[in-house]
Design goal:
Blueprint: E1 14-16, E2 23-25, H1 44-59, H2 62-69, H3 72-79, H4 81-94, H5 96-110, H6 114-128, H7 135-144, E3 161-165, E4 180-184, H8 185-191, H9 196-206
Antiparallel strand pairs: 1-2, 3-4
Amino acid sequence: MFCEMSVFFFWVKMEKCTRCKKMRETSEFYKDSLNTNGYKRICTPCLKEYGKKRYNDNDNDNEEYKGKNKDNAVSRYWAKREEILTKKSAYRKENKEKIAAKGKEYRHRVAGTEKYKAMKKAARLRRRAAGYVPVAELNKLIKSSNNVCFWCDEEIPNGEMHLDHIYPVSKGGRNDMYNLVVACRSCNQRKRDKSPEIWIEEILLEK
């Protein structure tokens, strides 16, 4: 008596994590259209472990940590601004060919992707955006906000104040005082290029 047996072979794509050095299935990597293989170089478990460790390291003394590091990066930059700009300028002059080659390689790698096309379109619209806002007017806008986010009506933490266009420039919004508001980092980053009507609906649903 003979029995027929069917054997199936499944090809699984594998990638090597640059952090843990293990070969893992691509399902364990976040997608990244800017990389040649289409995935992040660090696997999802490693990214989550790193994020958890970083959170735990700062969690116990969070307030103390914030106090010690308040505006440190900004103050360090402005203290050495001239030195930093001089070094950057010298590097660009000495490495013109290297910088040009890197830019060409990057454009060749991402050209044609939907993300790249969207970035180029948004950049064109920003350049064409009408309007100009003097620094004095921006300072007035920031002062009148009383450090409160226009969208969520919450107090903005130190170092997280953003200026946001009510109607996105990438969708035809103007770059003037009538289209600018003070927002927290969270709202500005989550709003992205959404219209104010859609974004307000999302905020109300969250509450």
